[in-house]
Amino acid sequence: MLEFTLDSTVTASDPVVSRQVANEIVLLNMETGAYYGLDPVGARMWELLSQGNTVRQVVDTLTPEYDVEAKQLEYDLLEFLARLGAKGLIETGR
Fold first, then answer.
1. Model-level pTM?
2. Rounded to an integer, what distance in angstroms lies between the CA atom of residue 63 and that of residue 44?
3. Low-confidence residues of the chain: pLDDT under 70
4. For residue 38, how far is the Cα from the chain centroid?
5. How far apart are CA 49 and CA 45, in angstroms?
6. Sheet harboring 16-21: ordered strands across?
7. Cα atoms found within 13 Å of the Cα of residue 32, Cβ hemisphere only
8. What pLDDT score was predicted for residue 94?
9. How far apart are CA 52 and CA 32, in angstroms?
10. SS3 labels along 14-66
11. Distance between CA 83 and CA 68 in Å, rounded?
């Protein structure tokens, strides 16, 4: 199981491709054929993470955008990453 910290960066796993569809992101695992849709908030998280930002940088960017407490956003983002990691969609850079 992958471990994520505030200093972690993540990348899509090799067999995973992503595409923007309207205001959502669709992830497709080319090995399994499984696909996943990310809602607008998940899509924004994915966008920032795919730019090489650390988890901390994503929290710092999204906290004012969504008017949420940083601790709550941190928890939600780490939970989001754990779910993506459990499905083999991402790898950690650190």
1. 0.91
2. 12
3. 94
4. 9
5. 6
6. 16-21, 24-29, 35-38
7. 12
8. 57
9. 26
10. CCEEEEEECCEEEEEECCCCCEEEECHHHHHHHHHHHCCCCHHHHHHHHHHHH
11. 21
Tokens linked to 16: 């995973």
Task: For tokens 């992958």, name the residue.
Answer: 2
pLDDT of residue 85: 94
pLDDT given for residue 23 in this prediction: 86
pLDDT of residue 2: 81
CB-count exposure of residue 28 (10 Å: 0-12, 13-18, 19+)? middle
Identify the CA nearest to 40 among candidates 19, 24, 18.
24
Question: Hey, what domains does the chain have and what are their CATH numbers?
Answer: 11-92 (1.10.10.1150)
Q: How far apart are CA 12 and CA 92, in angstroms?
A: 9
Residue-level pLDDT at 67: 93
